[in-house]
Amino acid sequence: MDNFALFDLTKNAFVIGIAKSVFVTVLNLLFIMPIVYLCLFIIARISHILYKNSKGSPYDFEVNYKRTIVVMVFFAIITACFMQHIGIHRRLTQRAGDKNEIYRLENIDYNIQLQDDGSANVEHIIKLHRNKLKSKMNDNMISYEFNESNYISDIHLFVNGIEIEKDASKQNGTYNVQSKKIRNKINIYLPDLKENLNLKLTYFVKDVLVRDLSGDLMYYNKFLANRSGLSYNTNFKGSIRIFIPSDFICQFSGYSKDMYIETNKKNDNSPLIIFENKPDCHQFVPQVSRSYLQGYDPVNTKGENIKDFSLTLRANFVTQGPLNTKIFPYFQEKISSLEELKNMTKRNNLKYDEKRLIWTYVLFILVVGMLVMIALSMPFFYLYHKAKDFEYIQLLYDEGEVEV
Asked: What is the rounded (10 degree) CA torsion for 40, 44, 49, 55?
């Protein structure tokens, strides 16, 4: 769902989403309301003791109990906001569902060293962290899938700095490759399940440079196009850096529907794209298609992942010198131009605007947390006010300030 549910009035997404959020929040609050009521009672007792020790007038009594009500309301608001914040943080750091994901993605960097004959040496540097929840599967195997523009060769894989062997035996400390022209899958049989896992994959690929239908020389690929056997419910970050020959002039752009993209070209010979799975406004505005708040990798009611992390990268090149090859293959599909990718990224990045994010986050906490907490605490406030108001009238009678 691309539109904000707040404005999706035709489907009543906001109303239904808020109702679901309130229902879940009420269930959570019912478990802690006895503790909240106990804290409110303690605040009331402390206030009463302080007044007794001060031996104030009936007017002081009235000011004291009304001030106490304000303090209790403030306590309820702070408690509600804190609970909502903790709940949001928990959902942003846990898996949406157990899919036997042993590790979660923390960072991934791609380094592409282009050659003037159209080939490239490619390096993937991946940082993973072990999930707290254990997988239902007890094996040590993880899979990593990626797209490449052509067949790959000369593959090397390093786990925590140590190269492991390519072997079909599926023994620990080995890996095997299922490779096609575009899609590749690496099955890694880990020596042990350490908390932090650093992978480095290197390979050679021929003819990564192609010409589009208009004849322009370019590099085109999709990164994170396939969901590997990893958990993506994290604020993972990454980059794509292209190292180009000195006589190349490069223009480039990238786009991902569900990630923040930033381009950086401080060095003409190594254009850089930075991406991040940042929180967006959609994560704090309840929607029908989501179960309350599912964090960085939400799923729908069928358990299907909603986000598409695939990042399309296009880089156009102009050469100032002769190339080491005469013919470059043509890319037969019609693809987005650089300008189209830039415009789509610019529009997409708006949903990651920090001011808008903070506003929706605060609104969500206030609406769902504060109002529900105050509503559930209202019986205590009412009974306390009624009791203290009665005591206040009795004090006035005792002082002779009210005629019977």
From this structure: 160
